[in-house]
Amino acid sequence: MRLRCAVLDDFQNIATTIADWTPLQDRVEVTSFTGHFATEDELAAAVAEFDIIVTLRERIPFRAGLLDRLPRLKLLIASGMRNSVIDYAAAERNGVTVCGTASSSTPPVELTWALLLGLARGIVPENNALRQGGPWQSTVGADLHGRRLGLLGLGKIGSRVAQVGLAFGMEVVAWSQNLTEERAEGAGVQRAASKEELLRTSDFVSVHLALSDRTRGLLGAPELALLKPTAYLVNTSRSALVDQDALLAVLREGRIAGAGVDVFDTEPLPAGHPLRTAPRLLATPHLGYVSQNNYRTYYGQAVEDIQAFLAGSPVRRLG
Predict the structure, then answer these.
(1) Do 85 and 196 lie in a common domain?
(2) Are the CB atoms for 89 and 66 separated by under 8 Å?
(3) How far apart are CA 192 and CA 173, in angstroms?
(4) Which residues pair with 235 in a beta bridge?
(5) C-alpha closest to that of 141 among 156, 165, 123
């Protein structure tokens, strides 16, 4: 009898076509789920009879309570090589091998600039007006050249965002709790003296930090109050880095020029969520990692992970 593999959150119904799954066809039956399971009970019921699960990024937490309810599960594959919502101890206790895949940082860099440019030049309202017979030119774009780009985080993604900013002729400054002068100089940017200075002086602020106990809620109401009324904020990193209620407040009150957001506390974002209708917000449904090359890598390496597991030599193990 073939093993059963569930591919979760395959929203675009592309997982089984963007990669070659034929090497598994004699041993594994693959089922793709194109919708998101809203509750743990729904998910547990749907995948209870599966031996292998392929999950997308950190969309679904695999805590002990869920893993305990999946007695047939033997292999859990997460896209990416870091996942903070899997209980690895519980997986080991339940005899579940956890593996990952490679993931490129290029797509989130590109999406960051798509949001920033879209905000700066009013792309969405101008496009809507043009298509709907509205006014010809209703916004005046914000210039990038000569303006200050403040980066919260200068890691793999932040440093690449910095290079694009420099190419646009922007003055780029960065801050994080561990950022050194040497690291900043190596990236060709200035090190801000403090988070507060960066927020007060930047025309565009982009967030590129890992979520941890130190960074959770890094931008709350007091921090957002430091931003210029003409400033734009972009977050393609983790939603919990920015207090969403505080962000909603500054957008509604017009205390910043706008925000670009790709990450949310609850995903998919509920239909009636206030962020869906917030003014001055350019929002995308967590597209940072969603690109053809990344998906080829995710699902192509998921096939490799399954093959290696069946051969008794798991690769790219996590935990």
Answers:
(1) no
(2) no
(3) 6
(4) 207, 261
(5) 123
Q: Is residue 163 assigned to a domain?
A: yes
- Total Cβ atoms within 10 A of residue 181: 9
Clarify whether 238 is annotated catalytic. Answer: yes
Cβ atoms of 10 and 60 closer than 8 Å? no
Sign of the four-CA dihedral 305, 307, 308, 310? positive
- Residue 205 is predicted with a pLDDT of 98
Distance, C-alpha 144 to centroid of its chain? 24
* Pair of tokens at residue 208: 């590129």
Active site residue 273: no
**Strand 281-283 relative to strand 148-152: parallel, antiparallel, unpaired?**
unpaired
Return the CATH number at 66.
3.40.50.720
Q: Domain range spanning residue 88?
A: 3-104+291-310
36-46 pLDDT, tens digit each: 998 999 999 99
* 236 found inside a domain: yes
Helix (H) or strand (E) holding 204: strand 204-207
Integer Cα distance of 251 and 279 in angstroms: 6
CA distance 150 to 175: 8
Residue 235 lies in a domain: yes
Number of domains in the chain: 2
The total number of residues written for the chain in this structure: 319
d(CA 58, CA 83): 6
Give just the sign of the alpha carbon dihedral 123, 128, 131, 133. negative
Please list the residues that pair with 6 across neighbouring strands.
Answer: 31, 53
Please tell me the distance from the alpha carbon of residue 14 to that of residue 298, in angstroms, as a whole number: 11
What whole-number distance in Å separates Cα of residue 275 and Cα of residue 283? Answer: 8
CA separation, residue 192 to residues 78, 157, 256, 305, 315 (Å): 36, 18, 21, 43, 41
- Residues in the chain predicted with pLDDT less than 70, given as ranges, are none
Residue in 267, 280, 296, 317 annotated catalytic: 267
Q: What pLDDT, on the 0 to 100 scale, is given for residue 151?
A: 98
